[in-house]
Amino acid sequence: MMNITPDLLKTTEGLVKAIASVLDEKQAENIKILKVEKQTSLCSYFIICDGRASTHVLSLADHVEDTLASLGEKPLHTEGMKEGTWAVLDYASVIVHIFDRQNREFYNLEKLWRDAESVSLEDMIVS
Length: 127
What we know:
This protein is of the alpha+beta class and 127 residues long. It has helices spanning 12-25, 54-69, 101-107, 109-112; strands spanning 29-35, 45-51, 77-79, 86-90, 94-100, 117-119.
């Protein structure tokens, strides 16, 4: 089990670490972390990943939301939590995009935000 504590969630980087770790633990695929604070005032980071099927997409979104909520951190807004093709969890400074493969390729957020700094997943995983 990961060592995610409420204290970790007090900083934006800690929130990124917690979310990335939860997604990694639940076998999200192709996890990308983009530091977008220089490109937009919307948030500081995007975390983008995909699930193998719609049930996996929903499971990933639910697990992130449930794990963080158990530590007192709830998203400001969620979208797509029923369809299973693209779920969005908005934690103000961090926005999580969880796609199925087809929609990940179609929307290609990494290309859209190609000027953003890419952050190493390995540096963000909490053990």
